[in-house]
Amino acid sequence: QVQLVESGGGLVQPGGSLRLSCAASGTIFSFSNMGWYRQAPGKQRELVARITSGGTTNYADSVKGRFTISRDNSKNTVYLQMNGLKPEDTAVYYCNEQNAFTRVEYWGQGIQVAVSS
Q: How do residues 76-114 score in pLDDT, each as one tens digit?
């Protein structure tokens, strides 16, 4: 059974940092493209950052230069380092796993990130 478990969210002041983690189980992690998405109240879910099975990354324009996605295949974990957080980064963040061959996708349960003074 595939499971994606996010951790590391919380409340932080503007300009602060958080690191999200997503631990995957039940899949061949090294074959998967991994992504972080977010959904703010009243808005559609949007891609924040993505890292392919080969390590290629891409980012939403709104987070470029502030967020960094990385993966550790030995730990079946993907990370999102978020620096210079802004109130507009407040959202529920979701981990996404996509098998690079079958394109089947899985989602985590989501974790809240709140940026406020």
A: 999 999 999 999 999 999 999 998 888 999 999 999 999
Q: What is the CA radius of gyration of the chain?
A: 13
Q: Residue count of the chain, please give it.
A: 117
- CA 25, CA 5: separation in Å to the nearest integer? 9
Distance of CA 8 to the CA centre of its chain: 11
Give which of 76, 100, 75 is closest to 24, Cα–Cα. Answer: 76
Q: Which residues of 19-45 are buried (b: 16+ CB within 10 A; e: fewer)?
A: ebbbbbeebebeebbbbbbbeeeeeee
What are phi and psi for residue 111, nearest 5 degrees?
A: -140, 140
pLDDT at 30: 86
